[in-house]
């Protein structure tokens, strides 16, 4: 079964680029352009992973992260930002983000973060079944 990744970014070009990269790696993708839309998609699709931009119109990425982790703690979240600070990255990690990637995005870093997050999610799922 293919893993599903939700890409949340208000820049359509970033969503399209990530969709192409992740499709080439064999992942199913769905995109959302706002925090509110992302939460609807998480509820409907329950993706395995969310790539989440910090700066979004309306509800920001940190608030979306809190909502996802509050209701769906098994969903891994990797934060993305072109304006990130160390404080923001630490805050996101404390709130449950698996990783924090800076823009401009490196294909290698994205693939590494995605693969690592999904591997950890798989191990956590296996532990629950023991």
What does this 3D model show about the protein?
The chain is globular and about 40 Å long. The two termini are about 20 Å apart. Strand 1, helix 1 and strand 2 form a beta-alpha-beta unit. About 50% of the residues lie in helices and about 20% in strands. The protein contains five helices and five strands. The chain is an alpha/beta fold. Strands 2-1-3-4-5 form a five-stranded parallel β-sheet, with helices on both faces. Helix 2 packs parallel to helix 3. It has a single domain, classed as Response regulator (Rossmann fold, 3-Layer(aba) Sandwich).
Overall morphology = globular
| Name of the CATH architecture | 3-Layer(aba) Sandwich
CATH topology: the name is Rossmann fold
Classify the secondary structure makeup into a structural class: alpha/beta
Topology:
Elements lengths: L3 E5 L3 H13 L3 E5 L2 H11 L3 E5 L7 H11 L4 E6 L4 H9 L4 E4 L4 H23 L1
Parallel strand pairs: 1-2, 1-3, 3-4, 4-5
Helix pairs in contact: 2-3
Keywords, please?
single chain, alpha/beta, Rossmann fold, 5 strands, 52% helix, globular
């Amino acid at each position: 079964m293919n893993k599903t990744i939700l890409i949340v970014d208000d820049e359509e070009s970033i969503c399209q680029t990530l969709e192409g990269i992740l499709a080439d790696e064999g992942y199913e993708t769905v995109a959302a352009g706002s925090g509110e839309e992302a939460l609807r998609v998480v509820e409907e699709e329950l993706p395995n992973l969310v790539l989440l931009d910090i700066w979004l119109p309306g509800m920001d990425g940190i608030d979306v992260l809190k909502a996802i982790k509050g209701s769906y703690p098994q969903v891994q979240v990797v934060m993305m930002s072109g304006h990130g600070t160390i404080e923001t990255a630490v805050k996101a990690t404390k709130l449950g983000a698996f990783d924090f990637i800076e823009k401009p995005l490196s294909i290698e870093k994205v693939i590494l973060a995605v693969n690592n997050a999904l591997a950890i999610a798989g191990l956590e799922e296996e532990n629950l079944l023991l």
